[in-house]
Design a protein that fits this description.
Layout lengths: L1 H7 L2 H25 L10 H4 E4 L2 E4 L1 H32 L3 H15 L3 H16 L3 H26 L3 H9 L4 H31 L11 H12 L2 H30 L3
Antiparallel strand pairs: 1-2
Length: 263
Amino acid sequence: MRRLRRILNAPLIAVALYGAIMAVFVWASYAGAQQMGYNWQWYRVPKYLYTLTEDGFQPGELLIGLWASVRLSAAAFGLATLLGGVVAMLRLSGLIVGKGVAVVYLELVRNIPLLVLLYLFYYVLGPIFGLTRWSAAILTLAIFHSALISEIFRAGINSVARGQWEAADAIGMSRAQVFRYIVIPQSVRFMLPPLTGEAVHLIKSSAIVSVIAVAELTTVGRNIISDTYMSFEIWFTVAAVYLALTLVLSFGVSMLERRFNPN
């Protein structure tokens, strides 16, 4: 068994196996589409990504949708991080009221499906508080992911040994100084990997806001398909764009992780 594993993990064999699996997947998709009588039109896809005119590079509808997805995800992640920090602090405050509020918030958010939460914000709270599609989408994503982020913060803070808190108290450091000089520098390296995963998760789950017609990447892709009937080409392209975005994000955070943990 070990010998077989060693052979399969050899670089050339691993690359060949990966290429074979991808080739089978592409061939199966192509053959299935041919049996359906599908007319591939990949030559029409580039104009939905970009065009080159006399004025230079012009982004296509998909790139404009991608930028909207990035802005939506960035705003939601920033708000989710803020809310997650507040909830984590409430839960670690030692106050009965603070802990109670945090636990109720977490249980409510974690036990409501994201789609139901989105409908609740857009169709129920939206008319009451005057929320637009955009603001309802940001609030929904931020609140849903803040519950998960608060647990990441709590775990990272708890990873610092209790003795270090007591040592800081013994030398007269304030709570803010303890967080700035002791807790955050040590807990960041534990929090970065799961926070990256949560950011990638948020980008992917942002596609769900297409059900309330927020003009982001998935909505733009769906609109193009309704005009052109190029379902396969556009959905493959949209998936590739999401993949490229999340890979870039993961690579950037990997660089940050190496900076905080050079070993």
